[in-house]
């Protein structure tokens, strides 16, 4: 008995095998992309939460607060002020480890007691540095979702407006 495969059926089997491998590769890459794209949200600041940098009770102080997640852990680091947040994330050993970063949008929440539902992506925010408003550790960075709000705050309380990437450890 002689087995006969036509050239056409051989190409069909080869095409089917390639299609199967490609679909498996796409499924795996979609899963990796999905895991990489998973973004954690800001967490509520509880009454007894302590600042990751200085250990002070966060809820006892006015002004914008901050939170950050690292690439290597699921736990959130909370900060009593945006100044402490930047002091932490700008340290060379932390810069590459930080993933998500959040600050309060101070155009939507009271300075004396910022509300958790007004956290925004810190990398997208506008900041006023050098205003007369005080946070937990004295002078702090006022954070806003819109440049116009940051400019209004600056006009009323002084300081200078910056973007996230313009802020350096020396400015703090």
Architecture overview:
This protein is α+β, with helices and mostly antiparallel strands and 172 residues long. Helices cover 31% and strands 20% of the residues. The protein has a 4-stranded antiparallel beta sheet with strand order 2-1-3-4. The protein has a 3-stranded antiparallel beta sheet with strand order 8-5-9, with helices on one face. It is globular, with a radius of gyration of 25 Å. The N and C termini lie far apart (86 Å).
Helix share, percent: 25-40%
Strand content: 15-25%
Q: What is the chains' assembly state?
A: single chain
Any idea what the radius of gyration is?
Answer: 25 Å
Low-confidence stretches: 26-37
The chain-level mean pLDDT equals 85
Distance between the ends: 86 Å
Which strand order does the major sheet show?
2-1-3-4
In short:
With 172 residues, the chain is an alpha+beta fold. The chain has helices at residues 7-37, 82-89, 92-95, 147-157; strands spanning 66-70, 76-79, 98-104, 119-121, 126-129, 134-135, 138-139, 142-144, 160-163.
Which terms summarize this structure?
9 strands; single chain; 172 residues; 20% strand; alpha+beta; 4 helices; 4-stranded antiparallel beta sheet; 3-stranded antiparallel beta sheet
